[in-house]
Amino acid sequence: MDFELNREQKEIQKAVRDFVKGEFKKDIIETLIEEHAYPVKIWKKAAELGFVGIHFPEDYSGMGLGCLENILVAEELCRGDSSVGTCLILADFASEILLRSDSEDLKAKWLPPIAEGEILCCGAFTEPDHGSDITTVDTTAVKEGDEWVINGSKIFITNAGPLAGCYNVLCQTDPHASPSYRGLSVILVEADRDGVSFSDVGKKMGMGLSYTAEVNFKDVRVPTTNMVGKENKGFYQVLEFFDESRILVAAQALGTAQGAFDRALAYVKQREQFGKKIAQFQVTQHKLADMATKIETARLLTYKAAWNFDQGRIDPKLTSMAKMYAARTSVEVCDEAIQLLGGYGYMLEYEVERFYRDAKITEIWEGTKEIQKNTIASTLIGKLK
């Protein structure tokens, strides 16, 4: 087994670190946080450098690289700043459903502007009454001639807002299917279509820079050619997407944990108490050792899941393990980072409290930690007679 990144992957890491150093200015981020503003300029710069959609083919303005390269970018961006980094790594959210489909015309039309930072992409799956249960969907799409007429509501939709360009909407297209998830389809809906509206969900615990909205579809008409992939295969498309996106969330969690650790380590090496550096106390050293070990374990799981995906293997157990463990690690490491900084850790100026608040979402979106445990356990046990 080779645990070494290749030359190109190391160069990508360095390029992202240089970008973070040059663009993630603390005063600029503080202003964005105060104004709850999306980091538009940083997003567009990241897209210009090829960090958005790096796993898209070159024909679609990508770099033709894989899942592993994509999560290396994500890790470094979130390490630089948990809030800004998350906005950037999710700028192309759910575009993979389109990317992995056979809808060539839609891919040619929508993937380039996503990669080039012209629009944000959205995945509209979660509904107000169903949460993690995507087997049950109330949003309907009824075929009328050469159009689909869509009605319904989606909640907690990332990127939904003024910069959104398109929504990949999970709809019930066959109301008679049994079980019902066999009648679900993914349909691309342009954000500026008549009948599409959104409303911000309000203030959140973390992710204050990211757009999160409820999206409503009222008699929205789109051409039948907006079907992404095959009709009534949407449930399976979304599940396959989760097997990729959960690795991205694991990388988000990993980067957030590493960023909090970096800040805590720098602090304890310069802060003095009782006549010596805090880092000289054994209790501090043990905390650092535990934090570093958890991070490295999460990194190995996350990298393995990404590498495995790039080999053409879909392993829900492994992706769920990576997502669940990295997310828990992120929350625990950020918590300890605050503890090491003491009272300063509680202050906005020292950032780790924001990393902590941002970390928690990794245990919730793309399937809660309980959902991940269900997936892991069901794979281990198999079907019981």
Rg is 21 Å
Strand content: 15-25%
Which consecutive residue ranges, at least 5 long each, have pLDDT under 50? none
Biggest sheet, strands in spatial order?
Answer: 1-4-5-8
The separation of the N and C termini measures 38 Å
Kindly report the average pLDDT value. Answer: 95
Q: What count of helical segments does DSSP give?
A: 12
Provide the succession of SSEs. HHHHHHHEEEEEEEEHEEHHHH
As for the number of domains, it is 3
What features would you describe in this structure?
With 385 residues, this protein is of the alpha+beta class. The protein folds into 3 domains: 7-115, Acyl-CoA dehydrogenase/oxidase, N-terminal domain (Butyryl-Coa Dehydrogenase, subunit A, domain 1, Orthogonal Bundle); 121-232, Butyryl-CoA Dehydrogenase, subunit A, domain 2 (Beta Barrel); 236-381, Butyryl-CoA Dehydrogenase, subunit A, domain 3, CATH 1.20.140. It has 12 helices and 10 strands. It has helices at 7-23, 26-35, 40-48, 67-80, 82-89, 95-99, 104-115, 234-270, 282-310, 316-341, 352-359, 369-381; strands at 120-124, 140-144, 147-158, 164-172, 184-190, 196-200, 212-223, 227-228, 272-273, 276-277. The strands form 3 sheets. A 4-stranded mixed β-sheet has the order 1-4-5-8. β2 (140-144) and β3 form a beta hairpin. α5 (82-89) packs antiparallel against α8 (234-270). The two termini are 38 Å apart. The relative contact order is 0.11. The mean pLDDT is 95.
